[in-house]
From TrEMBL:
PROSITE patterns: UPF0054 (PS01306). Pfam families: YbeY. Single strand-specific metallo-endoribonuclease involved in late-stage 70S ribosome quality control and in maturation of the 3' terminus of the 16S rRNA. It comes from Salimicrobium halophilum. One of its GO terms (biological process) is rRNA processing. Zn(2+) binds at residues 121, 125, 131. The gene is ybeY. Belongs to the endoribonuclease YbeY family. Its cofactor is Zn(2+). It is found in: Cytoplasm. GO terms for molecular function: metalloendopeptidase activity; RNA endonuclease activity; zinc ion binding. GO terms for cellular component: cytoplasm. This is Endoribonuclease YbeY.
């Protein structure tokens, strides 16, 4: 079962958004075959806070929409996401509320869809997906769209 620990550093997130993200991420985890006790954290911040994290961890001194901080890196010593032997901490998701609001307007869709997209995108990173190469990017973005579509959150 996926346990999500939410933190709102902006004091602006409605419980309905938290509930939606909880449901989307649990749905996605099930679709990805995540079993056993698995934990993640989701933190909502503003652009200043995410810019500081982006600068410190990625050496990019600008705000971004979402950051993922995996607790486990794929490797021989790591547990498989389908291994239910231990409770596991997958990692942290940090979402910029400012960027999410801005992008929802740019892409002409709801804030609900933008928050869901960003949270799902970050979860997929925690599960090992990446988009550094074109093939990986196509696979990851298609997986995101498939999950959001099946959940019922399509693009406007």
């Amino acid at each position: 079962m996926l346990k999500i620990d939410f933190h709102d550093e902006t004091n602006s997130i409605d419980e309905a958004f938290v509930d939606l993200i909880q449901r989307v991420l649990a749905f996605a985890a099930e679709k990805e075959g995540v079993i056993g006790d698995t934990e993640i954290s989701v933190t909502f911040v503003n652009n200043t806070q995410i810019q500081e994290l982006n600068r410190n961890y990625r050496q990019k001194d600008k705000p971004t929409d979402v950051l993922s901080f995996p607790m486990e890196e794929p490797g021989e010593e790591e547990l498989d996401i389908h291994d239910e032997e231990l409770p596991r901490m997958l990692g942290d998701i940090v979402i910029s509320v400012d960027k999410a609001e801005e992008q929802a307007g740019e892409y002409n869709h709801s804030l609900e869809r933008e928050f869901s997209f960003l949270a799902l995108h970050s979860l997929l990173h925690l599960l090992g997906y990446d988009h550094m190469e074109e093939k990986e990017e196509k696979e990851m973005f298609q997986r995101q769209e498939d999950i959001l579509h099946e959940f019922g959150l399509e693009r406007s």
